[in-house]
Amino acid sequence: MSKFPKGFLWGGATAANQCEGGWQADGKGIGVPDTMTGGTVSTPRMFYKEIRPDIYYPSHESIDMYHRYLDDIKLFGEMGFKCYRLSINWTRLFPNGDELEPNPKGVAFYRSIFEALKAEGITPLVTLSHYEFPYNLCLKWNGWADRRTIDCFVRYAETCFKEYGDIVKLWLTFNEINMGLMDHIGLFSTGVMPEQEPCVAISFGGEESHAHKQTRYRALHNQFVASAKVVQLAHAMDPEFKIGCMIAGSCVYPLTCNPDDILAAQREMYKGNYYCGDVMVRGAYGAMAKRILKEEQIDLDIQPGDEEILKKGTVDFYSFSYYSSNCATGAPQEAEATGNLSVGAKNPYLKASDWGWTIDPKGLRYYCNELYNRYQKPLFIVENGLGAADVLEEDKSVHDSYRIDYMRQHMEQMAEAIEDGVELMGYTCWGCIDLVSAGTGEMKKRYGMIYVDKNNDGSGTLDRYRKDSFYWYKKVIASNGEDL
Ligand code: BGP
Prior knowledge:
By secondary structure, the chain is of the alpha/beta class.
């Protein structure tokens, strides 16, 4: 007997900016990712204020899903997807972000996608903002730092609800909203312009003035307000709508049982997850958030009425990405660092991917329990997967047994979490079709079960091929997770 509930939403996830391409097709405006250059595991993505003709930008063509979505959706259907998580590219609907009426061609494009999904019997789960912030609003208002952006986002969300609400019932406001808290430049997540350019587009732990940091925190607060307004709007427009938060899962262990390590891990768990989770699920900043803000000397500039909006705009479910775990220590200078996204100490019990991301399936069970016991809201794993350099064989097969192992082990732990009592709505693995990596801008870091013939330098036929994991996942879905 399968441990997964009936109706469990198995599927895959993508983001418009990482797969669509067609960056200026049919009147689309420039989004933040369109300004970011490619990179590799050792060379970072760069940001220049102007888009330069001599530079290759991976999102401009991506895997050209803009022109190939019908075939791609058929492949998702063939795998038996129950659910497909995708994002709407804000700048297809509102090219500059602040227009009053949407671009009809952009509206028609997503209509056609949702109709195609419906024909395959696939439930869409839509992220309204997956880093696709209109670049015009960065230049004009410094992104989310300006409260006028809130109204633009609400107008955009309302358009989506109105245009697609007959088919789309599941929504997420911001992808990985907690990225705005990480000590990086902020452009990617909050649309706040860097202090100088050119610069590294996404940098963790880079130089940042206190004023810029404060702007980033305030921008994140404005995103919370916008999200809460959109949640209220969704509930008012259609009682069938379910709308969730999306947080980059940050599972942190103490490096040892030294109380200093325990406290460091507790703080990291809080900052990495509950700072945002408490606002979006409980409707208010938590106690530890206030201490963090005080220590960082941040004044959030909360406006009258904001607290009420946050309270009334709490989400229906909690969604998150989960790739790896981290260790925290009270003495970071003495510990060996990990290659993980967020800075942490190396866990001696775990192996890492070729990109340095620790692999920890049991951490997923632990993390689900922590979240569920804190919030008692249904959970949705909307990203998980292994970034690897796959090899396309002469006969066009791809033998990605490492990916199957990774996913199987995580699914086994999901089943355990369900046995623990966790309410899990679904699982959409990340990058079900190979796409551009958000962190490095590479094609080489592949997550898909469908191989796309495209290389880091932009060469390739863009043809699609089924990997071994394609057939394996099909079997998993058909058995509702019993046959792993
Ligand atoms: C998450 C993002 C995705 C995705 C994924 C994998 O943070 O929501 O957009 O890209 O991470 O990261 P990367 O592409 O850097 O390997």
